[in-house]
Amino acid sequence: MTGWSSPRVARTNSSEQLHYLLGFSGLRMVQDEKMLCFSLDSVLLADFARLTKDTRVIVDLGTGFAPVPLFLSTRASAAIYGMEIQPRAAEIARRNIRLNGLEDTITIVEDDLRRAHEHFTSSSADYITCNPPYYNYGTKALGASKAKNLAKHEQDLSLQDIVRTARYLLCNKGRLALVHKPERIEEVIALLAEERLHLKRLRMVHSRQDSRASRVLFEAVVGGRIGGVEVLPPLVVHEGEDYSEEVLRIFKRK
Q1: Single pTM value for the model
Q2: Distance (Å, rounded) from C-alpha 103 to C-alpha 225?
């Protein structure tokens, strides 16, 4: 799914773009075209996350330019952290935070998420979000951009690493929300169960009403009873040539 934002409003250098993110309280975001830019998946993930007044600490794993933390800042009064291993992406993420005056709300941790224990204590997060690499290494041809390959393919970091890190960070009753491809549903559920994260909500995302699902949104919780998974109605992205009414509602979130 391609990214969504307003038309390009400025270039900060030959490969960077500055966008206004309409509907998100005037948020602005710098992106580098040479790296993997945020997609609609990030918007849907941030909207899917079920935050409450008790959500005090949120960690976004593999945050990139920090779209998910920026979107979540409009929904929660929480301390939000984004972990990112690529220095260039982390640097732009920090600029995006300053650009929006959110230095007191969002913090970028530049490191491999497998070293989360060096930055966070165990069970310190209430909510984890993640838009992970979708492809097992070797199952899809790599592109020319090393930065994009790292974001799209599990070259070094596996889905299991992500789930294990989330389990380390989450407190009792803490929740993990992630988005992934439908063909990996069985693997995602098995890894969640292995780390004693119980699947609680699931939603399929379809490009159009009559198309196959292209993404799946998962939410799992630490502790609680096993079973009782809530399967939400499908989320359809497009109606005709326009976005669906529900997606337009998400875009217009204040």
Answers
A1: 0.88
A2: 38
